[in-house]
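User: Can you model how MRU sits in this protein?
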Amino acid sequence: MIPPRLIFKKTALKVLDQRLLPDRIKYIDASSAARTSAAIKDMALRGAPLIGCAAAFGFALEIRRLHPTSGPDLLTAAGRTAALLRSSRPTAVALHYASDRMLALAAGLAAANPGEFSPSAWKKITGVLDREARLVTSEDQAACLAMGTHGAALLPKNCVIMTHCNAGALATMGIGTAVGVITAAHSLGKIKRAYACETRPYLQGARLTIWELMRAGVPAELITDNMAAHIIKTCGVNAIVVGADRIAANGDTANKIGTYGLAVLAKYHKVPFYVAAPTPTLDMKARTGGDIVIEERSAAEVTFIKGVSLAPRGVKVRHPAFDITPASLITAIITEKGVISPVNKKNMPARISVISL
Ligand code: MRU
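Assistant: Here's the modeled complex, given as structure tokens:
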């Protein structure tokens, strides 16, 4: 079993520090919106659905901590808190979805309680916010299970599958998205072997995904990112599945840097390329991938690994943390509501239905 990623207790939020995995299991305190936001920014926790769940908990406990005393106070506190959480990372829309969802609920509570809060009104408000945060988590857990079922059904017997980054339990509050598909297919006896790309620069594949796959008993091998073409060509890879941070209205998909390259390889080698993502990842306001902000992270994450320098001091570095895979390279998007295929504007998202490819 993967250790709990988040531990929420009304006035406290603890976050599993994924930067130390798999060597150490350590929790850090994220019991204010500022601390939650810093933990997300510093990638103590990461993965689109998980940072959304953390934001929902961070929001609920921040409002409890600030203790606004009237409707207008609550509205101000809620607006500031949501803006802070939202700003932690720009690409994963689940973070923005959860922050906005909590803000909308708080705004409704403020409107319903315009005057000074009585003790019972305050108790009710905090209870409603806590429950909503827990609901964001339970919806994510249910979505992961459903994606596992839909995705596993798409895979052939004796499947040799490749994945990138970490879209597993560590990226969600459930069994994961892409890795959830692999483990669900494994429990049906369908997985011959899984390959996890190490995922430079942050090594989510090497540190997290391969650890999850090994713990789940999936026959799995770790490869460096630049081995992918050779492995696809020579090792019988017959499916690739990845997660997503944001999917535009036409199906263009933002995911961890390197995903686009894998999709190009999949097309060339005629291997189906699947994206597994819960519906809060669909951003209908982004018309195409061009509307999605790609996070640029620090040079140090590229030039250092665990404190060891890899490059000359002062080197110029680029570090886009995500890339956009065009819809035309994606065979299907696996959501909790079913499978979208073909992936195009017309099918997104109105015609989500369980289909067989
Ligand atoms: O920078 P990260 O580690 O947060 O990036 C994570 C990914 O790109 C995942 O593939 C994505 O969030 C999907 S997680 C279910």
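A couple of observations from the model: The longest helix spans residues 119-154. The chain has two domains: 6-144, 149-351.
User: Helpful, thanks.
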